[in-house]
Design goal:
By secondary structure, this protein is mainly alpha-helical. About 60% of the residues lie in helices and about 5% in strands. The chain is built from 19 helices and six strands. The protein is elongated, with a radius of gyration of 31 Å. Bound molecules: arginine (ARG).
């Protein structure tokens, strides 16, 4: 091979170009072209700083900054010819800049390396995704609040072990997810606050001898400050891992909710009807309406959690500072982010459109001896029984109802008194599901008034 075939950006010491397989394993342009806008923003900030500090002339900086806008519009317009030989987005952009503006393009890479460049680009990209996740979560919470407010006093069974436990309200169940998704928002915001420092100016790993102003580029790119250690700046990807960690937990929450929607929309439960817009049919069974969106959300956790594990594994053995292994960070994060945003949007749509089947919810709430705890509490409160004894008496009444094939409120007073002679007729007041939920007024409890207070609190907080 001739010298001409070696890489134009770094081929000075090379006599031959790379093997085709080397090029294939080395190139990242097929995916890191997604960083084009961030790369160009970083380069424009860098060029302005180089001129402000007198490292390059204003004329060259102006040409570079203008030329970069041309390159960006070519990329955004789909007219850009990406080259695998130029490896990645950084060298593709710079090579095109040289074609557009000529010699000044060669001055852009002064006091910079692809190591701090890629770390900067990727931080900017992840930061945008964090903002998008927060926006998506906010919309989903908005949809849940509408459901919760409408159904603050609709009763449904509350489960433990997926066995009927105690009646709760629809609004209370919706608000449980509001709390979870709000914590997810908090996790993304916390990660954003920690990651919002600029790696730019760390150069390859050791900093630079040029009199750069890292505060200037940090500010231009919306970072709070430059990162304090150049080795750290180019070699950690913890910011991406925090994003994936927050995304994994959020996806886990989405998946649990999706699982409930799959169960609730089944013919056996009929708790909710999902809209046609978020369901699909079967090509063979005409009666089917499948909750595919919920199922796919449930499945997304796999790839998002997978990305988290994959990047952890990539990073765990790397000596400081940059290693090419780190090029493997991007596809995982891109895929996880795309699928998280899709899952959030699909869940929001499903929640907005779904309608609760109140009669089915209420019937289910009343079955399965769901007010047995209310009965035991009544025995404690009204007859002064120790809770353990009340529990035992109630258990015998449940067994009696089960044997008769009825529910607790269907037992007669005589039936009740055969188990405990002091039981009075007013016990029946606490056996109704509406009275049961209305009585749970402890802070954070399922009583409609508590649910309405939760809704009001979140509405105020989210503005
Ligand atoms: N494409 C590379 C990456 O994503 C850019 C950094 C390359 N740096 C280097 N020293 N080869 O990690």
């Amino acid at each position: 091979m001739t010298q001409d075939q070696s890489n134009a950006m770094w081929g000075g010491r090379f006599a031959a170009g790379p093997d085709a397989i080397m090029e294939a394993i080395n190139a990242s342009i097929s995916f890191d072209k997604r960083l084009a806008a961030q790369d160009i923003a970083g380069s424009r900030a860098h060029a302005a700083m180089l001129a402000a500090t007198g490292i390059i002339s204003d004329t060259d900086a102006d040409a570079i900054r203008e030329g970069l806008l041309t390159v960006l519009s070519e990329i955004e317009g789909g007219a850009f010819a990406f080259s695998t030989a130029l490896e990645d987005i950084h060298m593709n952009v710079e090579a095109r800049l040289k074609e557009v503006i000529g010699e000044p393009a060669g001055r852009l890479h002064t006091a910079r390396s692809r190591n701090d460049q890629v770390a900067t680009d990727f931080r900017l990209w992840v930061r945008d995704q964090i903002d998008a996740a927060v926006t998506g979560l906010r919309a989903l919470i908005g949809a849940l609040l509408v459901q919760a407010e409408a159904g603050a006093d609709w009763v449904m069974p509350g489960f433990t072990h997926l066995q009927t436990a105690q009646p709760v309200t629809w609004g209370h169940h919706m608000m449980a997810y509001v709390e979870m998704f709000a914590r997810d928002m908090g996790r993304f915001s916390d990660a954003r606050a920690r990651m919002n420092e600029s790696p730019l100016g760390a150069a390859a790993l050791a900093g630079t001898s040029f009199p750069i102003d890292r505060w200037m580029t940090a500010e231009a790119l919306g970072f709070d400050r430059p990162m304090a250690n150049s080795l750290d700046a180019v070699s950690d990807r913890d910011f991406a891992l925090e994003f994936l960690g927050a995304a994994s937990i959020c996806a886990m929450h989405l998946s649990r909710f999706a699982e409930e929607l799959v169960i609730w929309s089944s013919a056996q439960f009929r708790f909710v009807t999902l809209s046609d817009r978020f369901s699909t049919g079967s090509s063979i069974m005409p009666q089917k309406k499948n909750p595919d969106a919920a199922e796919l959300i449930r499945a997304k956790i796999g790839r998002i959690f997978g990305a988290n594990v994959a990047l952890m594994t990539v990073m765990k053995g790397l000596p400081l500072a940059y290693s090419k292994d780190m090029q493997e960070d991007k596809e995982q994060v891109f895929d996880a982010a795309d699928n998280l945003m899709l899952a959030l949007a699909a869940m929001e749509g499903m929640v907005r459109d779904m309608s609760a089947n109140r009669p089915a919810l209420e019937a289910a709430a009343a079955s399965g001896f769901s007010t047995a705890t209310d009965l035991a509490d009544w025995l404690v409160r009204e007859l002064g029984l120790p809770f353990r004894e009340a529990h035992h008496v109630t258990g015998r009444l449940v067994a009696m109802a089960e044997a008769k094939g009825c529910d607790l409120p269907d037992l007669s007073l005589a039936d009740m008194q055969s188990v405990h002679a002091d039981i009075r007729a007013d016990v029946f007041d606490v056996l109704g599901v509406h009275n049961s939920v209305a009585s749970r007024v402890s802070y954070g409890g399922t009583a409609p008034e508590q649910v309405r207070a939760q809704v009001a609190r979140w509405k105020e907080r989210l503005g």
